């Protein structure tokens, strides 16, 4: 008797298991293929994980209903990558695999119908009969507009079967875009500037062999021309048929960078980020899956896409915390990029002016090759940096006299000034100066932020908001006032002090509307004097040649935080902010306001010497036995009561306890109540990543078979970025 043909299917469900089905004759399946399967009373889209497995005996397997394509949506290397990631991050394989599909394909849509194909005519094939008017009209339409898309044609009244008929007759063929074919897709590129001597030396040290794995950390100070180097690298080493991936933290914030890539590579550039429409995503996904020679510029999740000819991976601003997904499948895009390059036998280049301590450590250990680029490109020089101690100085909305006169001076010279403040809104607290009452979020253990523009009190941790009141809600006194600084308040103060200069606020609130960031950036790029006031958003990769002054309103946030990564993040942010000053021909200046001007970290920061800082911070991590010297994971639980959360963590603790691990907690999270959920955590550390991984796998399996109340939610976060 022949063995029944079976397949093990992954479903997009938070379940740490796969499901076995019969494969009916004459269906044949390969791993990575999309199928429809019955599941309970539903029909679900699944992905074939394995075939020919021995099904458990005594169980009546249901048959696979149908295959959605006859080719695997996920090629082998992508499946391998995701099953590695599933194991490493302890996230269910099904959900991991499905993140590599565009939303339309996750829902079981057809991979072909929705793809926007471009068409051109061929001078061959059998002409439609003279009475096939529609087909003839279609043929003319395509002849007149080579590169026209299927959706444009259907909008014009033609049908997809008509298009298919012409294709089958060999009268039309698919092309890349607007009549462009592979051959000329690279032609409309313009050369960039000549590489500087320092850039050339760096370029020569980059891996020349794109057919072999290597990991390089490109430490290049701000404005050193790393982007130019990536462009040069791809131009020199990427073959015409190759695919490349360039990961960036946020695409919308740096349209200039994207424009530079497009100027160099024209049609070869494709983009990937969360704001694309479903059909744009499907379109790009198909290009990648079909092995078209794209250079994909994308955010975090781009690293999971089904590349088939990947030959170079670049991770720009590799230190950026947005590479780590904070919920669900909590992966690090940067770390997966390195593993992906390893699987695909190609180089990965991690670039930053402020590398993560993990990458810096790997470079120190010789795991990554280190390339240093320590001169600014063009005529630019590194900015001068100065600490301004603001203890017992009079402040105007947080800004000291010397800072204000430096701003005035820059504007007088026709230059631009930037003011960094890491809080949006008007003020972080509303307080009654009679009774001391402070307005708190009813759902979180936090204070409400006052947003003056729309007279609202908002919680920055949940979606709670209410109208701001003029009087204290507790004692009715009208001595109820905003305390502390946010971007809105600083904007308002500066607008009052410099009435003739535009003050431009850049934060999540001011850039919410689509396209508003583009408007802001083009105003700054016009070069006319202005003051930019903003949050982290201002620190990210912008190239504003006329900004000569950067002022940091308060640098002290990261000095005394409970999160062990806070000092690293503070140093990175401050150096990145500083890096926006003096990128053009004029010298730049940075003023950092602090109450701790004698703090060694801030003093080292002022010397602008990141390698020394990184080494110091690493020494502290080593002494504290913290990552990257040990592997770390955090179990996070939230429930309706703190007691439930702590109870579950206690039992996780007893599951995982044993030799080779150190456990801290359980303890309530820094914000113990968020959106009415009570949150606590348990930190697990080990010298051996393998050992930790094994323990986590066992623990997760045990937790899965427990009957937990539905209101108690747990998750494990491997290599956590936030530990508060
Ligand atoms: N060889 C060169 N000659 C002249 N100008 C250059 C050269 N290389 C780069 N530049 C210019 O220098 C500026 C900074 O370059 P780029 O944005 O690539 O720096 P970066 O290292 O990526 O900066 P950051 O890390 O601060 O974002 C840009 O305006 C770029 O056009
Ligand atoms: Zn809240």
Automatic annotation (TrEMBL):
Domain Helicase ATP-binding: 207-373
Gene3D superfamilies: P-loop containing nucleotide triphosphate hydrolases, PriA, 3(prime) DNA-binding domain
Binding site for Zn(2+) 1: 432, 435, 472, 475
Record GO biological process: DNA recombination; DNA replication initiation; DNA replication, synthesis of primer; double-strand break repair
Cofactors, names only: Zn(2+)
Composition bias, Basic and acidic residues: 109-125
EC number, UniProt record: 5.6.2.4
Protein name: Replication restart protein PriA
Source organism of this protein record: Marinobacter fuscus
Gene symbol of the encoding locus: priA
């Amino acid at each position: 008797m022949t063995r029944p043909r079976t397949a093990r299917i992954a479903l997009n469900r938070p379940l740490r298991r796969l499901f076995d089905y019969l494969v009916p004759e004459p269906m044949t399946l390969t791993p990575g293929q999309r199928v429809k399967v019955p599941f309970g009373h539903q029909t679900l889209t699944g992905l074939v994980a394995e075939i020919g497995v021995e099904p458990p005996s005594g169980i009546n397997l249901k048959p696979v209903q149908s295959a959605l394509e006859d080719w695997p949506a996920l090629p082998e290397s992508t499946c391998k990558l995701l099953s590695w990631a599933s194991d490493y991050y302890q996230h269910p394989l099904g959900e991991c695999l499905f993140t590599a599909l565009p939303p339309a394909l996750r829902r079981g849509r057809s991979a072909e119908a929705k793809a926007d194909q471009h068409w051109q005519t061929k001078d061959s094939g059998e002409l439609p009969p003279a009475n096939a008017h529609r087909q003839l009209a279609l043929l003319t339409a395509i002849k007149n507009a080579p590169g026209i898309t299927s959706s444009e044609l259907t909008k014009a009244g033609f049908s997809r079967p008509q298009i298919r008929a012409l294709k089958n007759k060999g009268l039309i063929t698919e092309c890349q875009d607007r009549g462009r074919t592979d051959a000329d897709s690279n032609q409309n590129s313009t050369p960039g500037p000549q590489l500087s001597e320092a850039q050339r030396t760096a370029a020569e040290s980059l891996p020349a062999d794109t057919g072999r794995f290597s990991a390089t950390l490109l430490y290049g100070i701000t404005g050193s021309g790393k982007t130019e180097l990536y462009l040069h690298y791809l131009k020199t080493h990427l073959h015409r048929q190759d695919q490349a991936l360039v990961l960036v933290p946020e695409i919308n914030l740096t349209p200039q960078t994207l424009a530079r890539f497009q100027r160099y590579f024209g049609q070869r550039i494709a983009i990937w980020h969360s704001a694309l429409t479903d059909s744009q995503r499907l379109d790009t996904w198909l290009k990648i899956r079909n092995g078209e020679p794209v250079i994909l510029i994308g955010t975090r999740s781009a690293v999971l896409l089904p590349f088939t000819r990947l030959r170079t991976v670049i991770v720009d601003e590799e230190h950026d915390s947005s590479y780590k997904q904070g919920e669900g499948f909590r992966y690090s895009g940067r770390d997966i990029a390195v593993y992906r390059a390893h699987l695909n036998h190609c180089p990965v280049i991690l670039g930053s002016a402020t590398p993560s301590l993990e990458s810096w450590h790997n470079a120190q250990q010789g795991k990554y090759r280190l390339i240093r680029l320590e001169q600014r490109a063009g005529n630019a020089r590194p900015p001068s940096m100065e600490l301004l101690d603001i203890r017992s100085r009079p402040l105007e909305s947080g800004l000291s006299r010397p800072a204000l006169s430096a701003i005035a001076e820059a504007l007088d010279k026709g230059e631009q000034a930037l003011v960094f403040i890491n809080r949006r809104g008007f003020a972080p607290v509303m307080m009654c100066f009679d009774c001391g009452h402070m307005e708190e979020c009813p759902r979180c253990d936090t204070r409400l932020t006052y947003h003056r523009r729309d007279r609202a009190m908002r919680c920055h941790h949940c979606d709670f908001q209410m109208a701001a009141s003029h009087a204290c809600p507790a004692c009715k006194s009208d001595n109820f006032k905003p305390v502390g600084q946010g971007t809105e308040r600083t904007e308002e103060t500066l607008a009052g002090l410099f009435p003739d200069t535009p003050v431009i606020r850049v934060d999540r609130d001011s850039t919410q509307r689509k396209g508003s960031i583009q408007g802001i950036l083009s105003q700054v790029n016009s070069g006319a004097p202005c003051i930019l006031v903003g949050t982290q958003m201002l620190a990210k990769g912008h190239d504003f040649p006329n900004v000569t002054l950067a002022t940091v309103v308060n640098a002290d946030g990261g000095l005394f935080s409970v999160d062990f990564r806070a000092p690293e993040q503070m140093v990175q942010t401050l150096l990145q902010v500083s890096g926006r000053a003096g990128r053009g021909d004029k010298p730049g200046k940075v003023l950092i306001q602090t109450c701790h001007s004698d703090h060694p970290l801030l003093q080292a920061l002022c010397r602008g010497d990141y390698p020394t800082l990184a080494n110091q911070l690493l020494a502290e991590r080593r002494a504290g036995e913290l990552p990257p010297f040990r592997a770390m994971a955090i179990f996070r639980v939230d429930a309706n009561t703190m007691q439930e959360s702590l109870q579950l963590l206690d039992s996780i603790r007893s599951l995982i306890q044993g030799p080779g691990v150190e456990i801290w907690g359980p303890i309530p999270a820094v914000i113990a109540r968020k959106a009415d959920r009570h949150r606590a955590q348990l930190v697990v550390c080990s010298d051996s990543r393998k050992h930790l991984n094994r323990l986590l796998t066992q623990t997760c399996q045990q937790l899965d078979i427990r009957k937990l109340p539905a209101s108690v939610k747990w998750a494990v976060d491997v290599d956590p970025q936030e530990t508060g």
